[in-house]
User: What shape does this take?
Amino acid sequence: MIIYNVTCNIPEEIEQEWLHWMKNEHIPEVISTEKFTSFKILKLLTVVDGNEGVNYAVQYFCNTLADFDDYDEIFAPALRAKTANKYGEKVLTFRTLLQEV
Assistant: This one.
């Protein structure tokens, strides 16, 4: 199992709008690529000194590294551009790729 983890820092004033957009538009678009089998949205509860806003981790699960590579090469650029056009630098993201062992 491969897990594509996207950690997001969102200003509190747009948290609910962002979460609605993620659940109703962005994540369905990612899942529609058929490269991921499921996803989870997790809200980070740990408070980090000096960190402003609210943090979420969105995890997408796929069966193989090849599935992720296809997503990253074929679909991700347009989806990332769409997100950047909508939120600019308001939403900061950090991406990691994990493997279940």
